[in-house]
Specification:
homodimer, MgtE N-terminal fold, CBS-domain, Tetracycline Repressor, domain 2, 3 domains, three-stranded mixed β-sheet
């Protein structure tokens, strides 16, 4: 892609120039890139470069760049602008894009920005703002084109021409009755190749699936993926047409949802180039949580201090049991959290999953227990220790897979995200189980 | 969404019926669902139910269901069919969909399936098969509509009507010259509202970005995301138009790419409901790898057996140092692998990242070293041990973040996926560093 290549070359040039500092050239080059590339460049830059790039950006494209940035960066840049600036920068954006950005602003600024807009735009934005950000309503655009069944295609065509332009990502317009009840959709490609003397009622798609305005955005994304949609009508509880959702907004949801599982499991909430102070804080929480659980595990080891003092080999081998349980638990946890995010796990198949994971835990437990037993008995010439570590391993892998299944279900049951803290919780369980089962058996049989 | 709700109710009913077994009813209900829902249902079912559902499926929709299934399941079902069946089932699919499925079949069957197709379809498929599956060429569809600059819009319109229907997800057609050189695109919505006496040359978008046929599919996905594309032309090295890519195929790539980071880091290659035997094998590999590294870490503890025998408290505290280093390393690793997958990390910003991670490792190291030191000195009334664990903690967190940065860079440098095995490698490094630094310092200062 030559245009793509050119923009990559430019980005690379700008990156080099940022350090050498040929201001005017940087500015000219940067502003010749398309907004999405600029946004990607900003996200791939350390904090100081981000600020600099933002400052030399032309006001006219700032709005377009903003909508391509991540939530965190949108917030950061918006915080530094006053209402008038925000209104100026976002003037050229579509309703759904603007609504998306407005949700990142402080309450006080929102009111000011709204009041500086035309009545028509203001009403549109307020309609979208009335719905939660992560619902179909928060995702939708209200600039829908709607026609009636008894219109001829010729009338529709003339109406569209009068509009001057058709919104982007529009592959269909909607059919409603006098009361704005949603009836179906009219595919524009079908309109293009149909006899213009026909009526809308002759060629429209009756009951083309509509999205409920309060539907969760992840479900919306799934509907788009499953049915290969480009755009879809949004209706309220009374099946009145209230807006439309287009694929470009849904793609962002798909990307974010897929990333969400990873974020939950790793406990990371920061972007790649977040400031050092932000990164330190965000990681510290997770490390602190882990420290608490590490002390809990240590306190269980402490119970068996006497045993370890007599057979030091136990201290050498005990991390192996804990570590293997942790890996088995994390594997199952990842499968569960991913499956739950994809909407695959429910009442009807959970029993099968529990049975499979139990079998997986037992089989791998036995397999690696045998290996561990042989290595330990060869290494320390002690078959009793070998048997003890083997049994502890089987038990810990079983506990591991079961924690991996039940912890996310429990977290969901108390209305938390199934993956959040999951890794820390399951590894604490397997650490404690690993140490206690191994050292406990040793206390009983070795002393 | 009432249609959606109905299909969810049906799915739930089918799931219940599968156990009670009212065959005819299940069959009727299942076949009334849309193919994407059936595919989702199959993916959310244990292996035996999957087989049963596939058997009672109507032949006519099997092809559509196939394209919505994951690669693994496509392969599995295709393995059980002969060439004639495959040809029958896939008869109604679009070129790119068919090409996608054909790539999952055994070589011998491919030849048979191709020879049972019409010459025209065969040529189309072979064109797509000539390119790697994960390239723009493997993703594209060859049924493009191309027009010339000197055509009037009226001629274009009549040509489109003659075609009878316009392929799905088509928002633009392409403009070429006599030699099939790609010149630009004609937006169908623009065509819809333009004066038909104009020429293509008057309203087409010159040099609308084209995708190079050998571009990697992840880059294609990024181009679609950045520019909010619905479809894009594909050109070869000589800028000849060879096909087009549509957003519905790209959405799958986006989902798979986002999932890829999670898969690499967790080492899991299976689907949620994979067979027990498959699950056991796939997890065993990772557990075995972890066992080797656990033994390596244990062998380092073994060096300090004498020290532990004299001060058993060391055995109680040593897992804390190792565990904290492991968490810090995994955090950095996740940030790096995700950033590399998003194409954000390169020559110009890696130095900044290394500096930030070093600062993050040091700061969190010092913070938690102080906490650990105080707790340890209060718990065991031993300030020397407290100082030793504090220093070991700082050192291990520093080593952790640096492994997190450099291991993925190293893996990439030797042409491996940056995340594959990353978790196991970095935690081995932090386990060994944690045990050796803590027990080593203890041997020097405590004995």
């Amino acid at each position: 892609m030559s245009a793509e290549e050119t923009s990559l070359n430019k980005i690379s040039y700008i990156k080099d120039s940022l350090s050498s500092g040929t201001y005017l050239q940087i500015s000219r080059m940067l502003n010749s890139l398309n907004p999405a590339d600029i946004a990607h460049f900003i996200e791939s830059s350390p904090p100081k470069d981000r600020e600099f790039v933002w400052q030399i950006l032309n006001k006219e494209i700032e709005g377009e760049v903003l909508i391509h940035l991540s939530d965190t960066l949108q917030k950061q840049f918006l915080k530094e602008m006053d209402a008038a600036e925000v209104a100026e920068v976002t003037g050229s954006l579509a309703t759904d894009e603007l609504a998306d950005i407005i949700q990142r602003m402080p309450e006080a600024v929102i009111e000011e920005v709204l009041s500086s807009m035309s009545i028509q735009n203001r009403i549109r934005i307020e309609e979208v703002l009335a719905y939660p950000e992560d619902s179909a309503g928060g995702l939708m655009n209200t600039d829908v084109i709607a026609v009636r069944k008894n219109h001829t295609l010729d009338v529709v065509m003339r109406y569209l021409r009068m509009q001057g332009s058709i919104p982007e990502s529009t592959n269909k317009i909607f059919v409603v009755n006098r009361k704005n009840d949603y009836l179906g959709s009219l595919n524009l490609n079908k309109l293009l190749i149909s006899d213009l003397s026909l009526h809308v009622g002759d060629i429209y798609e009756k009951n083309d699936k509509a999205i409920m305005v309060n539907m969760n955005d992840s479900e919306v994304a799934r509907a788009f993926e499953q049915d290969d949609l480009i755009s879809a009508p949004v209706v309220d509880d009374h099946r009145k047409l209230v807006g439309r959702i287009t694929i470009d907004d849904v793609v962002d949801v798909i990307r974010e949802d897929a990333d969400e599982t990873l974020r939950q499991l790793s406990g990371l909430e920061e972007d790649t180039f977040s400031k050092t102070t932000v990164a330190i804080k965000s990681r510290a929480l997770w490390l602190g949580l882990n420290l608490i659980t590490a002390f809990i595990a240590a306190s269980f080891i402490d119970i068996f201090k006497e045993t370890i003092a007599q057979v030091v080999t136990l201290a050498v081998l005990m991390p192996i049991v804990a570590s293997m349980g942790g890996v088995a638990a994390t594997q199952t946890l990842t499968i569960m959290v991913r499956g739950m995010a994809l909407g695959q796990i429910g009442r009807t198949n959970i029993a099968w999953l529990i049975r499979r994971e139990t079998l997986v835990g037992l089989s791998n437990g036995i397999l690696w227990a045998i290996v561990v037993g042989f290595v330990a008995s060869w290494w320390f010439q002690n078959t009793l220790i070998a048997q003890i570590i083997a049994f502890a391993m089987i038990f810990n892998l079983l506990v591991g897979v079961l924690s991996g299944v039940f912890i996310p279900l429990l977290l969901k049951a108390i209305n938390l995200d199934p993956g959040v803290g999951g890794t820390v919780i399951v590894t604490t369980i397997t650490d404690v189980t690993g140490f206690v089962s191994f050292l406990g058996l040793a206390s009983i049989f070795l002393l």
